[in-house]
Amino acid sequence: MKDRQNIHGSWANRWIFILAATGSAVGLGNIWKFPYIAGENGGGAFVLVYLLFILAVGVPIMMAEVLVGRRGRQSPINSMREVAIEANHSPKWALVGWMGALAGFLIFSFYSVVAGWVLAYIAGMGNGDFIGMDGDAAGKAFNDLLADPQALLIWHSVFVVLVMTVVMGGVNKGLERATRIMMPALFVLLLVLLGYSMTTGAFGQGFDFLFHFDPSELSWDAVLVALGHSFFTLSLGMGAIMAYGSYMPKKASIGSTVLTIAALDTVVALIAGLAIFPIVFANGMDPGAGPGLMFISLPVAFGQMPGGHIFGFLFFVLVGLAAWSSAISLMEPAVAWMVERFGLGRMPVCIGLGIVVWLLGIAALSSFNFGSEVALFGMNIFDFLDFITANVMLPLGGLFVACFAGWILNKRITKDELAITNPTLYLAWSVAIRYIAPIAVAAIFVLNLIEKLG
User: Fold this and answer.
1) pTM, 2 dp
2) pLDDT tens per residue, range 37-83
3) How far apart are CA 72 and CA 83, in angstroms?
4) Could you state, in order of their start, the residue ranges of all structural domains in the chain?
5) CB of 79 closer than 8 Å to CB of 73
6) Least crowded by CB within 10 Å, which of 79, 175, 219, 350?
7) Ramachandran sector of residue 5 (left: φ over 0; alpha: ψ -120 to 50; beta: rest)
8) What interhelical angle do 308-342 and 177-197 show, nearest 10?
9) CATH fold label, 14-453
């Protein structure tokens, strides 16, 4: 089949795609969630199980998303439709693309609120606001921020503008240019913070927390946590990787490229843990404090250490870059479809969608202050958006993509795009995408609903 041309452009080379997709995958969860859940669930034993799930579930689905995106050379919605038609199946498979694009749009609306907190802390660290602050004062500062709708609105608005400005520039002048700057900066900041953590006197304790190999701590619940994180960490089910895959050069190997992305995503999470936990332990703090670790415990730790406010500032810049790179990919599927569907330029599309998602974000941030009494199915607006996307839309999106690639597409299409010459490797991917990944993602979907609703 003659390769379709993407009207949005294409990545300059394979490594730009790798960095862009890694930027999409590396988000707030990599900085605090993965290191914490690894340390609490068996350390190295958990990491090993997690990596097995990455290979058996995350990588095959990511390959499928890239495959469909590159085959269709359009937004996830139109790529799903065109590739389904090519495989002599119903164009209604486009609904999977719709769900992914909508999920990304909804996630961005509340993700930008949390990213706004990060921007506020960048400013606070830069001003030295946390120097000498104790835990109670830091907790009060965070709660005061949440209770201040004006401050949340300002930072939420700034983040929306930052993201939409990049997306407005298109593939080459926007996404690619930002990737070339943001991702190297993110890696450099990670290494600087890692070096700083080595001076705390608790690096060995942090290393042991993250990498101690204790299978006795690896409970069934821990295995399920590893399974769930292996799916969510790679930005699957929301159309982002499919959209980025549509800009991928034809000659680039999908398999080796996706494995590289998965490896970089994991390495970033582990280095983040090695950078954070020695600081936590050096200050006698709880490594399992969840979001409070980032916005309460760490600011106190940085504020009490020599030169800590400088490295605290760099830390929140790092987190901000991770949030920015992820958020860009959340909006790209919806923007690409609008451009294709209505023949509009990116500027009016980004302005229009930016206003809508900004308004939705205001509803989300109101959950912490003036709109705290508003409830949807017993949840505030912020929690409802989080629940419906993370527990329903993303797992279903990943499940349908796996079934589409494994059962709907014929071997001619998948072999042509994957270009896996080793028959054993192709068989391994086929088994994973047909059986292992759908069963695993279905388990994530059902168990998450039971946990949340039970």
Assistant:
1) 0.94
2) 888 787 888 989 999 999 999 999 999 999 999 999 999 999 999 99
3) 6
4) 14-453
5) yes
6) 219
7) beta
8) 160
9) Hydantoin permease (1.10.4160)
